[in-house]
Design a protein that fits this description.
single chain, alpha/beta, Purple Acid Phosphatase, chain A, domain 2, six-stranded mixed sheet, five-stranded mixed sheet, globular, binds manganese (II) ion, EC 3.1.3.16, PPP_phosphatase, Calcineurin-like_PHP
């Protein structure tokens, strides 16, 4: 496994040491602005001027984003992780995240992508989990976002992979550049709990050193702003986990005056039932960790739920949060809201190995439910996932993205792709030998202490 080197203990506060391919003779020298890695052919200079600076007129350009891609690609191969601030200084990070956060926090919980026309394409992307080089490939393969090419990312930008920060910042830059063309939805990993277990927090602390806590806090603030779902051309619903429950509150006794008015949660007293788009629009998404109990359950459902082949809605006991929903619920949801397609993500090859009745994630997508009103698809865009594995036996999964085309944008065109090889050698930021394989068995006790 060329890309998995032993990780330090999870609590190790020291920066991970950058490791380069064994066939490269490496010496790293640091000057005030640039660091170069020597190879037998000599040092590879940065392809663009570093450090990057925020445009004087504050408006990002395609050139700026291409420079960001080149600089991140170069630094991932030629600098140690702790030298990232030489490429992207904290003040530039601050401006990028603040600008993006302002845009994101204003978006509704469910963004509607309606201004597509006969020339439009909508690219939908699943989990990417910090696999920067695969994300860059995907963007180039699908074609960059532009006037006629929308992108909807279904969340899980960070954790597990070693370049979650660069990946997330690159996508934020696209959001700032083309806010009406690029949509970034929230995944369950865009949370305090997940990032503290699966590597992103440590990654940020290693990369930004004494400014790491500040950078991590700003990222968490931005995660809270990410919308939960999208509806594309009125026909396609996308979200990271998927469907969600109704949380309508029912006044019980009011007979003895207003003082004794009680509210009770539908789900605690009645069977679970599917929530509506109106309820989704009213949920409070700005939470560091979506709660699994109480009244604000919709964000947790949307980010954590999974489909099943068994009818009905039931608690997702494997994950400890969210729901399992059957084909009947897919049909009800599609029919009720006049939709044709649900595209969700959230399950990679590791998760699917343990889901009898559902397809494996070998080619980056599965068609899970086929019902009279349409289909439910799971889309996963991190090939050769997870980046770090304790065994020689890798899943060798491909990743995929979906292109939706006019006239109705409801027929998925699947594009499958392989991982970029070799990945730059680097240490993991979490203890991948001990940490549980998928997002199962959510440790609720730890989540309580984390909030
Ligand atoms: Mn997920």
């Amino acid at each position: 496994m060329s890309d998995s080197l032993p990780s330090g203990p999870p609590s190790d506060p020291k920066p991970a040491t950058a490791t380069n391919s064994p066939d490269e003779a490496t010496t790293t020298t640091t000057s005030s602005t640039t660091t170069t890695t020597s190879t037998p052919e000599g040092p590879i200079p940065p392809p663009v001027q570093i450090p990057l600076s925020w445009p004087a007129d504050s408006s990002l350009t395609l050139d700026w984003i291409q420079n960001l891609i080149s600089a991140f690609d170069w630094s991932s191969k030629n600098l140690s992780p702790s030298e990232l601030p030489l490429v992207l200084p904290v003040p530039v990070f601050d401006t990028l995240v603040l600008t993006a956060s302002k845009i994101l926090h204003k978006e509704p919980n469910c963004v509607r992508i309606d201004d597509c026309n006969d020339n439009s394409r909508v690219v939908v992307v699943g989990d990417v989990h910090g696999q920067l080089h695969d994300v860059i490939f995907l963007l180039q393969d699908a074609g960059f976002p532009c006037e006629d090419r929308f992108f909807v990312f279904n969340g899980d930008y960070v954790d597990r992979g070693a370049w979650g920060l660069e990946t997330f910042l690159l996508l934020l830059a696209w959001k700032v550049f083309l806010p009406q063309r690029v949509y970034l939805l929230r995944g369950n990993h865009e949370s305090k709990y997940c990032t503290s277990v699966y590597g992103f927090e440590k990654e940020v602390l290693v990369k930004y050193g004494d400014k790491g806590k500040h950078v991590y806090r700003k990222c968490l603030g931005c995660f809270e702003g990410l919308p939960l779902a999208s509806i594309i051309a009125g026909h396609v619903y996308t979200a990271h986990g998927g469907l969600f429950r109704s949380v309508s509150i029912t006044p019980l006794k009011r007979s003895k005056g207003k003082k004794n008015r009680r509210i009770t949660l539908n789900s605690e007293t009645k069977p679970l039932c599917l929530g509506s788009l109106e309820e989704l629009s009213k949920a409070r998404r700005s939470v560091l960790d979506p709660p699994w109990e109480g009244l604000n359950l919709i964000p947790g459902d949307v980010l954590w739920s999974d489909p099943t082949m068994k009818s009905g809605l039931s608690p997702n006991t494997e994950r400890g949060i969210g729901l399992l929903w059957g084909p009947d619920c897919t049909e009800d949801f599609l029919k009720k809201f006049q939709l044709k397609l649900i595209i969700r993500s959230h399950e990679g090859p590791d998760a699917r190995e343990k889901r009898p009745g559902l397809g494996g994630m070998d080619v980056g997508y599965t068609i899970d439910h086929v019902v009279p009103s349409g289909k439910l698809i799971t889309l996963f865009s991190a090939p050769d996932y997870p980046q770090f594995q304790a065994t020689e036996d890798r899943f060798n999964n491909k990743g995929a993205y979906i292109v939706l085309k006019p006239p109705y944008f409801d027929v998925p065109e699947f594009h499958t792709f392989e991982a970029i090889t070799p990945r730059p050698a680097v240490n993991a930021y979490y203890d991948y030998e001990d940490v549980i394989d998928s997002d199962e068995e959510l440790d609720l006790a730890s989540m309580v202490t984390a909030t």
